[in-house]
Amino acid sequence: MKKVLLTGLFCFCVLFLFQTTSLAQMQFKLLATKKTSTMQKEMNEAADAGYRFEGVSGGETAFGGSEVVVIMSKPMDSDLKGRYQYKLLATSRTSTMQKEMQEAGDNGYEYKGQTVFETTFGGEEVVVILEKDIKAEVKRYEYKLLATSKTSTMQKELSQAGDAGYKFVGVTVGKTAFGGSEVVVITRREVQTR
């Protein structure tokens, strides 16, 4: 009995030490800018150094004004340098965003996040971040962007998208140039290649 307890205690200690060590070995990078073109460049520079996208938010920061803020992370024990590439899309027109997302999806980029913020030149825009893993098998996606000010209309459009095989990937609510205060939903489905 004593041997079983000691073995159990030893396993618990090793597991605790392993979890504590792995949690402490993560580096983070915070990027913040008013220009979406600058953010895409900074994200790709961070990706070249081994960082990967974690999250995005847009809004007013204390000293920067209206900015898009991105968090990226890098495990200290892995080498992800140059593995990921990022595209940041920002527009106030649904047709433009739909077209740009589809072009990125055709090239293997995968949706990672979205936000709404007031850009320097474009007013309030929806910003979408896409990621491509250049070492993985390329998956192609078909994207469908839904935008409306009426939640009942969005329910209908989401149901139709679901019936067509699309899956939900993201939503923002905010005042956009798309049409005032709107719900903007992005869905996608994987394109089967032959």
Short recap of the structure:
The protein is α+β, with helices and mostly antiparallel strands and 194 residues long. It is built from four helices and nine strands, in the order H-E-H-E-E-E-H-E-E-E-H-E-E.
Summarize the topology:
Layout lengths: L1 H22 L2 E8 L2 H13 L3 E10 L3 E11 L8 E8 L2 H13 L3 E10 L3 E11 L6 E9 L2 H13 L3 E10 L3 E12 L3
Antiparallel strand pairs: 1-3, 2-3, 4-6, 5-6, 7-9, 8-9
Describe this structure in words.
A hairpin with a 3-residue loop joins strand 5 (110-119) and strand 6. The termini are far apart. The strands form three sheets. The chain has a three-stranded antiparallel beta sheet, with helices on one face. Strands 4-6-5 form a three-stranded antiparallel beta sheet, sandwiched between helices. A three-stranded antiparallel beta sheet has the order 7-9-8, sandwiched between helices. The protein is globular, with a radius of gyration of 21 Å. By secondary structure, it is of the alpha+beta class. The protein has one domain (27-191). The model has no long low-confidence stretch (mean pLDDT 82). The protein has helices spanning 2-23, 36-48, 94-106, 151-163; strands at 26-33, 52-61, 65-75, 84-91, 110-119, 123-133, 140-148, 167-176, 180-191. The longest helix has 22 residues, at 2-23.
